[in-house]
Amino acid sequence: MIKLYASDLDGTLFNGSHTTDDFVVETIQKIHESGATFSIATGRDMHACRCLSLRLNELKGYIIAQNGALIMTMDRKVLYKNPLDKEIVRLLFKTFPNARFECTGFDTMYIRYDRDYYYNRLLKKGRYHVETMEDVLQKTSDCVFGLRDEEILEKEILKINLYLNSDEDASIYDQFLEEYKDIVSNGSSEHNLYEFTMVNVNKASAIRKLMEILDIEEHEVAVFGDGGNDVAMLEAFSNSYAPKEAMECAYKAAKFHLGSYKEHAVCKQIQSMLEAKE
Question: Residue 235 sits in which domain range?
Answer without folding.
Answer: 4-81+202-277
